[in-house]
Amino acid sequence: MAAKLAVDLAASELANEALGLGLDTEKMLGTLAGLESENPTQGLAQRAHEAFMEYVAEHADRFESPTVGSEVGKVLRDDRGEIEAVLVLPEPFKRLMRELGFESPLNVLDSWRRTELLVHDKEKYTVKRKLNDVTVRVHCVLATPPGPKRPSGSSPVRSPSPTRPRKIFPG
């Protein structure tokens, strides 16, 4: 977003100087920033993600048990011990999102997919993972959006392809 605003501001300042228009570029920047922050998809994605990650932190026992069985899912950690992603079975995910106040889990998944917080197979909201020696479809929710934070190739979850992650579990 900052890059877009910087380009818009630079272009408006150049046009203002070259044509002598007398534009208030600071006011324009404030308006553009306000419009960007009002993006409803971004707002839903962020609110739902914050609520979800808080739930994971508060109920870690439901996600970090040695087996998934009747539990909600599994937390994946990077080599530093930080949460990289959370695998959640689809039905418990729906119940959890409704419990957190999001009536349409599908809208949440769609917003996460568009904001790259969800690792998924092409045209799906899930990926296949082997849990308890059984391959199942799970929602793979990233703890942080992709970005320059990690060097490329250092993640056990993310891959060069935005829709196809590397294998997380052997087998």
Protein model, in words:
The protein is an alpha+beta fold. The chain has 6 helices and 5 strands, in the order ααααββααβββ. It has helices at about 1-20, 25-35, 40-60, 60-65, 90-100, 105-115; strands spanning about 75, 85-90, 120, 125-130, 135-140. Strands 1, 2, 3, 4 and 5 form a 5-stranded antiparallel β-sheet that branches. The model is unreliable at about 150-155 and about 160-165 (pLDDT under 50).
In short:
The protein has helices at residues 2-19, 25-37, 40-58, 60-63, 90-99, 105-114; strands spanning 73-77, 83-88, 118-119, 127-131, 134-142. With 171 residues, it is of the alpha+beta class.
Secondary structure: elements and pairs:
Blueprint lengths: L1 H18 L5 H13 L2 H19 L1 H4 L9 E5 L5 E6 L1 H10 L5 H10 L3 E2 L7 E5 L2 E9 L29
Antiparallel strand pairs: 1-2, 2-5, 3-5, 4-5
Helix pairs in contact: 1-2, 3-6
Instruction: Figure out the total of helices.
Output: 6
Tally of strands? 5
Chain-averaged pLDDT = 76
Structural class: alpha+beta
State Rg. 20 Å
How big a fraction of the residues is strand? 15-25%
Separation of termini?
A: 40 Å
Unreliable sequence segments: 150-156, 158-166
Q: What characterizes the major β-sheet?
A: 5 strands, antiparallel
| Overall morphology | elongated
Write the H/E string, N to C.
HHHHEEHHEEE
**Residues in helix, %:** 40-55%
